[in-house]
């Protein structure tokens, strides 16, 4: 995760967040930024990095999924000669 450091003299907060608390900074009534204590941020950052390092599931399509897609596009039996089968059974 990328970090940008700002000196405490350049940041204007009315108070620091307490341990386990997040301070949400709003702009025009909408959440814009979140301020956390470093000790609270570190485990969260580790979870984010772990999630980004490995996808939570396999993103490749299985053979069954590929076959299902092909069936959806062109169902099996769509080109089957049912009339010819009926004629052959009548003979």
Distinctive features:
alpha+beta; 91 residues; 3 helices; 2 strands; two-stranded antiparallel ribbon; 40% helix
Quick description:
This protein is α+β, with helices and mostly antiparallel strands.
Oligomer: single chain
SSE string: EEHHH
Average of pLDDT? 82
**Proportion in helices:** 25-40%
| Shape verdict | rod-shaped
Largest sheet: 2 strands, antiparallel
Low-confidence stretches: none
Number of strands: 2
Radius of gyration: 30 Å
Q: What count of helical segments does DSSP give? A: 3
Q: Roughly what fraction of the amino acids lie in strands?
A: 5-15%
SS class: alpha+beta
Strand order of the largest sheet: 1-2
- Whole-Å distance between the termini? 74 Å
What does this structure look like?
With 91 residues, the chain is an alpha+beta fold. The protein is 40% helix and 12% strand. It contains 3 helices and 2 strands. A two-stranded antiparallel ribbon has the order 1-2. A hairpin with a 2-residue loop joins strand 1 (23-27) and strand 2. The longest helix has 16 residues, at 38-53. The relative contact order is 0.08.
Task: Detail the topology: elements first, then pairings.
Elements: E1 23-27, E2 30-35, H1 38-53, H2 63-73, H3 82-90
Antiparallel strand pairs: 1-2
């Amino acid at each position: 995760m990328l970090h940008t450091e700002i000196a405490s003299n350049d940041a204007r907060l009315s108070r620091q967040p307490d341990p386990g608390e997040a301070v949400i900074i709003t702009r025009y009534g909408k959440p814009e930024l979140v301020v956390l204590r470093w000790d609270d941020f570190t485990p969260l950052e580790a979870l984010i990095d772990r999630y980004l390092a490995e996808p939570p599931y396999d993103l490749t399509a299985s053979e069954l999924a590929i076959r299902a897609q092909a069936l959806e596009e062109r169902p099996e039996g769509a080109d089957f000669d049912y009339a010819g089968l009926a004629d052959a059974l009548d003979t």
